[in-house]
Amino acid sequence: MSILPQDVFNAAYAKSKKNQPGRIANEAVELLGECNRMVRLFFMYGVRVNPFYYMDTDDVTFSSGWARPSEAESIYWIEFTSGGAEVITVPLNDKEAETGKPAVYRQGQVFQGAGNTLDPTNEELTFFFSKRSTDSSDKDSDPIDELFPDSFKELLVLEIALYLAIKDGREGDVAGLVAQRDRWLLMYLAHLEHETMNVVSRWGPPQPFNTSSMIALGTMLQGGTTVEG
Predict the structure, then answer these.
(1) Is the CB of residue 78 less than 8 Å from the CB of residue 126?
(2) Which terminus of the chain has fewer CB atoms gathered within 10 Å of its CB, N or C?
(3) How many domains does the chain have?
(4) What are phi and psi of 79, to 5 degrees?
(5) Which of 83, 94, 188 is nearest to 125 (CA)?
(6) 214 is in which domain, residue-wise?
(7) 66 occurs within a structural domain
(8) This model's pTM is above 0.70
């Protein structure tokens, strides 16, 4: 089942008798933009907790380098499209960091061969990445990104409800909504952590999952949160 933004808005209005559909915030622009932003943020949680969950791939042909896939939020792996050999990424200031493996370095939004014997020159490369969510363009007919699990629709509902309460100056409603949202957020994070348990690897667990960051994603949630992520 797909999730339409308007369904999210309607469920958010039901959280308070004081919500006035279409009057506190414009649905087609303001609330749709907020809904898209929140879906993108919850995809970011996927990057930090489980980079495989929202993973996608793109085969990139050489054109003065290999352009970063436009949907990539976080690139996890690069390989030769033909043969599948790994291509690592090295720093611009240390192109010989690992001469025993094919390597590229970043130059803006383009990857360049590092220039060593094994490094790619003009071959097609496949990028594996945690994707950025695809925005909905219409609240009534264009569902949110289908990769977002339907079972966590309530996260979006509560975020929109919080947006309305904060904008309407109803601070008394905010604490209760934050508590509800945080319970759903914890369940979402738990789901990301344990969604596939039977992975076997010759090199141990398929880590690293990202566990720390300079940016606390929770600061971007409506009303703030004490849940770390």
Answers:
(1) yes
(2) N
(3) 2
(4) -150, 160
(5) 83
(6) 5-50+136-197+208-220
(7) yes
(8) yes
